[in-house]
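Hi C.,

You asked whether I'd gotten around to modeling the 200-residue construct. I have! Everything is below, sequence then structure, no commentary in between.
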Amino acid sequence: MNNLFSIDCGEVLLREFRAEDVDSIYEITSQPEVYEFLPDWRSTREQRLNWVTNYEVPDNKEFLAALPNIGGANYLKLGIILKETGEFIGFCNTGLKEELSEPNREIAYAISKHYRNRGYTTRAVKGLIKYLFENTDVEQLNAVVLPQNVSSDKVIQKSGFRFNGDIEIEDQTHSHYTLNKEDWKSLLNSPTKGDKYETI
């Protein structure tokens, strides 16, 4: 992995973007099942190459260099890698969501249509949550989901987020979820929920 930053999430691994991921990211974000909910990620291959090389990879380095005080550091974009094959099957990111009031750090994600409904996305989201709460100064995380994105809604709820009302973003109503560090710790330490949370 050439010493790339990574987070072990069980069957999948999160690792920072690299230039060689361009084709995989382009293929995933070209799927209607993905760009329906993440239209800003749709691009040409040339745009994707430019974004990964000149923005996303450097942004990741900046984020990691700022640890643990990431208040001003914006994005960390991580590929979801299937351990068994090494295949890039999705991504799980954290960044500042300008449309939300502070603290406005969010988690966002997508997975290839070929790997849905296997628990991989939930594992990735939980892995990133754990990393952020244990290794950075983050005290609260957000997620925004379009109501019709039922699969994403399930991932967010399985990951411990609580519904915080509706919010308008770009003339569309989104469900807004939050997860506080103390609530996350309580969830992990719950005798009835802790093991289930860790293993899903």
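If it helps when you're writing up: The chain has a mean pLDDT of 91.

Thanks,
B.
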